[in-house]
Amino acid sequence: MQTDILVIGSGIAGLTYALKTAQQMPDKKITILTKTQSDETNTKYAQGGIAGVTDFDHDSFQKHIEDTLIAGDGLCNPHIVEIVVKEGVERINELIAWGAQFDKDPEGDYKLGKEGGHSENRILHHKDVTGKEMERALLEAIKKSSNIELINHCFVLDIITQHHLGYLVTKSTPDIECYGVYVLNLSTNKIEKIIAGITMLATGGNGQVYRSTTNPAIATGDGVAMVYRAKGRIENIEFIQFHPTALYEAGVRGHSFLITEAVRGDGGILRNAAGEAFMERYDERKDLAPRDIVARAIDNEMKINGTEFVYLDCRHMNQQNFREHFPNIYEKCLSIGVDVSKDMIPVSPAAHYSCGGVKTDEYARTSVKNLYAAGECASTGLHGANRLASNSLLEAMVFAHRAYVDTVKYFETAPSNVERIFPDWNTAGTSAPKEMILITQSLKEMKLLMSDYVGIVRNNERLQRANRRIDLLHEETEHLYEHTEVSPQLCELRNMITVSYLIIKSAELRKESRGLHFNTDYPEKQTILQNTIL
Residue range 331-336: average pLDDT? Predict the structure, then answer.
């Protein structure tokens, strides 16, 4: 199969990029691949909203820039922050023009929420399902584009580069090029080649490497792992944001239900097992401190009191407003016997967002030629050591747009297609898996070691243990991969082990505590700021 533009992933980054390129270049064929259903993305589960300066009477670009820089703890790229904040408003307006609806007050003005780390109310939202509403609007617009083909149930295995033409490709190889991908078509169970002039990685996050995460099952770090195998650059991936308030349900592991930060923005108060409001002991901003501070505070309170959760108290809030703004949270809590008007909500931190990823420039270009990356899989320089709440959807749209601008320029001067013969996927020597337990048990071990050793609080000994164990899991999984027919389960395990290794290695290289990376052996920040690039 051949296509002009290949998009891997159907979240806000991938869909925005595909829609813009399709409208600007109606003669080009755009193909979107997604490994499950088109709407099953991290975007869909984004509750709180999207940050943008729309109320210039009380807010300003400079305030949003400063809030982002403070949250990023010295590692943000100021130029990138300015780009995202200033260009983001136009991207939001485009999304509204495509049909996305954000909540308004009776006078017709947008209801603007406030979340941790923000100095002003600037969060646009659609109740507590903002991401789902944005995804809906984009998919509706995509359906109207005749030159976009959206293919579900396609698992991308690897990026095709010069390596597949028989050349030796290393980290030092200049001008590594992407020619497309190998993909496992789950409808036919066959491995196919898709050759593309331009490829956009919009594969989302990697929360599933941890035992408890707000991410859906698809968030297995596929894009980061593929780029690393292709000898592309990965940056700052040790900065894993744990959302402070995931709903605690005894015995439930994997996908945790998110209690959006907007609940605290509207007045929710965190309390420990004794009922004490504890955040004032950790930060003057109390419950609206940035997520890294709140998550560590909750982790510390849980350890002090020997509990598996703390409480989010919403009993004093206007209950009618709560049900209107957070209907899904209200219903979810009620389903487990928690009436927010009478009961406090049990919450605990869960892996939520990867601030690092595939290193990109200001036009979403990766270190691999003709390969872009946008959304959570990318490291743009916006988030630094800690993402400011509700900046992620904004970032995804801004860099999807910038990649589109660069793509249009590419096709204006693109050389004529050079016919290359790429080999078929080599299945020689492989057979059907004998036991799924070899995959599922390794997956459990990986999640356990990442959660226990490379979580909210780390130290050198934990990281060393994690490194030794992940090496063994890598060795066993590679042996299985070389001798077994590929499957989504095996490939996801392989990708998650690669991403786990990268997180551990980056964490070992950072000899300080900064933002989301807190190492008790290096409790102080260093004066020299640097990115960890692998």
Answer: 94
Please indicate, yes or no, whether residues 304 and 401 belong to a single structural domain of this protein. no
Please tell me whether residues 339 and 380 are part of one structural domain.
no
- Distance (Å, rounded) from C-alpha 449 to C-alpha 468? 10
Share the mean pLDDT of the chain.
93
pLDDT greater at residue 451 or residue 250: 451
pLDDT of residue 182: 97
Residue 220 and residue 277 in one domain = no
Exposed (0-12), middle (13-18) or buried (19+): which is 431, by Cβ within 10 Å? exposed
What is the pLDDT, as a whole number, of residue 528?
Answer: 73
Residue-level pLDDT at 419? 72
The pTM (predicted TM-score) of the whole model is: 0.93
Contacts 24+ apart (CB under 8 A), 161-164: 161/230, 161/231, 161/368, 163/230, 163/231, 164/422, 164/423
If we measure between CA atoms, which residue out of 362, 367, 317 comes closest to residue 159? 367
Domain-embedded: residue 527: no
Instruction: Assign residue 391 the CATH number of its domain.
Output: 3.50.50.60
Give the whole-angstrom CA distance, residue 114 versus residue 335: 27
Render pLDDT for 67-103 as a digit per residue (tens, 0 to 9): 999 999 999 999 999 999 999 999 999 999 999 999 9
The answer to whether residue 291 is catalytic is yes
Give the separation between CA 169 and CA 34, rounded to whole angstroms. 28
Looking at the structure, tell me whether residues 227 and 255 fall in a common domain: no
Rounded to an integer, what distance in angstroms lies between the CA atom of residue 413 and that of residue 55? 41
pLDDT in tens, 11-35: 999 999 999 999 999 999 999 999 9
Contact partners, residue 94, CB within 8 Å, separation at least 6: 397
What dihedral do alpha carbons 456, 462, 465, 467 form, nearest 10°?
Answer: 50
**Mind giving me the DSSP string for 154-179?**
EEEEEEE-GGGGT----TT-TT-B--
Instruction: Give CA separation, 362 vs 84, 234, 405, in Å.
Output: 10, 16, 11
As a whole number of angstroms, the distance between CA 498 and CA 495 comes to: 5
Strand, helix or coil for residue 184: strand
- Stronger pLDDT, 46 or 160, i.e. the higher one: 160
Domain enclosing residue 291, as ranges: 246-349
The pair of structure tokens assigned to 464 is 């060393």
Q: How far apart are CA 145 and CA 148, in angstroms?
A: 6
Count of residues for the chain?
534
Residue in 91, 291, 462, 494 annotated catalytic: 291
Share of the chain above pLDDT 90, in %: 83
Q: Which of 300, 324, 349 is the last residue of a domain?
A: 349
Report residue 476: phi and psi, to 5°: -65, -40
* 129-171 pLDDT, tens digit each: 898 999 999 999 999 999 999 999 999 999 999 999 999 999 9
Is residue 424 assigned to a domain?
no
